[in-house]
Amino acid sequence: MRPTGRSADPSAAKEDRRQALVRAAYNQIAENGFEGLRTREVAAEVGLNIATLHYYFPTKESLIAGVVDYAMQRFRSTLAPHGFPADQLAIHLRAVRDLLRDEPQLGGVMGELELRSARDPQIAAIMQSTYDAWHRAVRGLLQRAVRHGHMRPELDSDDVAAAIVAVLTSMTLPTVSSAGRTDRVLRQLERWLGIDSGPGQDQPTPTGQNMPGK
Amino acid sequence: MRPTGRSADPSAAKEDRRQALVRAAYNQIAENGFEGLRTREVAAEVGLNIATLHYYFPTKESLIAGVVDYAMQRFRSTLAPHGFPADQLAIHLRAVRDLLRDEPQLGGVMGELELRSARDPQIAAIMQSTYDAWHRAVRGLLQRAVRHGHMRPELDSDDVAAAIVAVLTSMTLPTVSSAGRTDRVLRQLERWLGIDSGPGQDQPTPTGQNMPGK
Amino acid sequence: MRPTGRSADPSAAKEDRRQALVRAAYNQIAENGFEGLRTREVAAEVGLNIATLHYYFPTKESLIAGVVDYAMQRFRSTLAPHGFPADQLAIHLRAVRDLLRDEPQLGGVMGELELRSARDPQIAAIMQSTYDAWHRAVRGLLQRAVRHGHMRPELDSDDVAAAIVAVLTSMTLPTVSSAGRTDRVLRQLERWLGIDSGPGQDQPTPTGQNMPGK
Amino acid sequence: MRPTGRSADPSAAKEDRRQALVRAAYNQIAENGFEGLRTREVAAEVGLNIATLHYYFPTKESLIAGVVDYAMQRFRSTLAPHGFPADQLAIHLRAVRDLLRDEPQLGGVMGELELRSARDPQIAAIMQSTYDAWHRAVRGLLQRAVRHGHMRPELDSDDVAAAIVAVLTSMTLPTVSSAGRTDRVLRQLERWLGIDSGPGQDQPTPTGQNMPGK
DNA sequence: AATGAATGAGAGTTCATTCAT
DNA sequence: AATGAATGAACTCTCATTCAT
Known about the structure:
The first copy, chain A, is an all-alpha fold. In chain A, about 65% of the residues lie in helices and about 0% in strands.
């Protein structure tokens, strides 16, 4: 009675199809943007007829809603790790970078959602709450780091969290992410946070401009 | 007293019309995205027939090119001040914030261009060169600031410039810019750079987390 | 008893629709020329929406290709009889005349294709090969006729075939075909070929200018 | 007081412009057919503005009428030579061939007019009367040739004239005129008429199938 | 659960024509 | 006599959506 696979449970099979369609749409958006999202293409990629797509998703908007869900879950699942020990902030930054590097579509889709949220209140709400959760998570990390004495107590955890989220978000944009700027940006962010550990991808930079105590 | 308006110079009048169309398209993109850009709407907004729009811009693509030009000029003109004394980096950051605040459309359009550049090589080239110029300008500021003793000499001006550009860019995104996050982010950036002149919008908060020497 | 009409075989029904559209386009071209061919009209004539027409023929050009096929087949089917006994050249000439008389659209469409071939290499190729085949068929007839002693041996079968094809082709032109000139022309051609079997449509005019021996 | 040239007479200058426009349209039709005739292009080719074209020719149809006139005059002028001695029929055939060879546009335009006449009664009338005149001229030649003993008395001058005109007309069609078929056709026509003079373009063929004297 | 066929609404683009200057 | 600017009408083509099967 596994809920996945083409097995007994009919409603599971249905969910499979839906997932396949959502993933196809997700890829399409990553590649062509909302502008270039064609339901026919999505259906074709899954090997289905347009009409069948509309059986699963009555309207294009509902399919997009599915994509938003999928992207968010994809994002969150990787971004909100389990334990978060003391200085796992560094791990978090790397995780984001790795995620964007390994699944380049995600950046594109997030960017598209970002923009769409300016016009689509429904998406805006989802995005906002996701970012709020993210912000809170990062802020929590910062506070714990301060409590553990790994960061300067006078930092405004709200402001720093906002800045971190902003920098990480900018990395989804093509212009910033291109030409290896990503690594530059991330490295500098680590320096500012005093969590740069040298190797990463690159050279040992034991400077630590911001953490005089170090 | 240039011949703006329906006055003497005929070629100026033509340029006026073109500008009006470009601005209308610019607004449309800001409001509805590239996805929602309709030439008929643009023409109507200026009070012209579509055929007339095509008289000025043979193709939709050429109109978009006009918009790109306009947005870039809008962006650059405010971003590349003339003199740049020693600590004008702060002024620059504020200028960007003010520009995005006072002309909210600009953020939207830049975001759209940003995304489009992932698929449109022509736009990508323009965006890239603009960002490169921006990066160089900021880096130059940083280097001068270091030379004048206003910043720590060991900073990697390339990395810091990249981070600054990334943060400022992220401010064009709706999610980041909403809910007053912009100010948070900017304030923190200033702190990191050691150029913060106070909390909120302007009040003096001489903390200076990053520039211990100062 | 093939599944014509709205009966069993679904793919046959599809082919029916395609045929109906092609025939409608064929009629439109005959009536208004390529210049006046409007997809909307074609669809309307069959009782379909334009979008549906594009379902069957993705582009106007592909619809035209269908028309070319149809016209050619219409032409060939009647022009390349089965057996061709000795003096069937006469039959061939009459068949062409009858075809053009009974299906006046064909002349118009062929004329249009003729002209279009001056600008459209694709059509030019089709027309050329059709005419070549026709030329060869006629030449073959002539040679057999010579071999059987029904025509003078010294005739240049290539030249005569070219002339015959030219005359028959000219009969598709409105000016030539109008005012009963067709019959005049054909009668004279028969005389030159020595196969004339009578005046007007049928009256016996045993002159036979060309076949003195006969 | 020459009526041509850019001199004194204002109405002559006007006529010049008209002629230039007509000739430009004529060339355009030869190249692109009626289908591809664009008034803007015509005006541009003469170096005028569209609006100016409409000053000379209020409507596109009126411009076309001008082209018809021009083509007809071009055709007639060369086709109806002055003297016509006894066997000038041969000269006539050669003249037509040379005309079509030396001014290839004429064939195209005549073909277009030919087809258009199927839909445009006005053009049909002009074409018809031109062809009638041509037919009569050729018939006159034949009759004189018979009277002078250069042709067989029993020929039906009406039928032969019709056939000649048909063959010559077919030579305006691209498919017939291509691939050197023209010469074949013409040569054979000359043989049938008994006026082949051997060399022409090619080999001496003194056969003369049709001249009983042989 | 799946599909082929059909559609309405609308997109960008073209073109002959007009009008004020 | 000439033009730049403007327009209406029409064209081909696209796409999300629907419906009978």
